[in-house]
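Data availability (excerpt). The following record was deposited with the supplementary files.
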Amino acid sequence: MGTTHARYVYELRLKVRDYECDLQGIVNNANYQHYTEHARHEFLLRAGISFADMHDRGIDAVVARIAMAFKTPLRSGDEFVCRLRVRREGIRYVFLQDIFRLPDEKLALKCQVDTVCLVDGRLGQCPELDTLMEPYLDKE
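Predicted structure:
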């Protein structure tokens, strides 16, 4: 899960809302997963990939594993940016996502999300997705 000074291919700016915080006044850990998922979905839409269209054709990209390392808590009203890069490992797409508090760019979260495709209900490779994702893959 180590981050190098990687080539991020997408970033999404967001702001913490009051109801996302717990009694300690910091963002509840579950909400970080929402932030990273929202950033992945927005990235995929920008790349021309629609989950609804894929599902209608029997292709479902699903999360297989998530690892999160919490670094600096976000608080109500904090603005932040979720940046991502993606690489391919076999049939998995691995999304490496970092959340930085703004404006100081303090690292708040490091996250790795491993995804796989189910094609007609069976785990497998999806040539269509491979083609669409190729320009964004981290080749390092």
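Summary of structural features: Confidence is low (pLDDT under 50) at residues 1-5.
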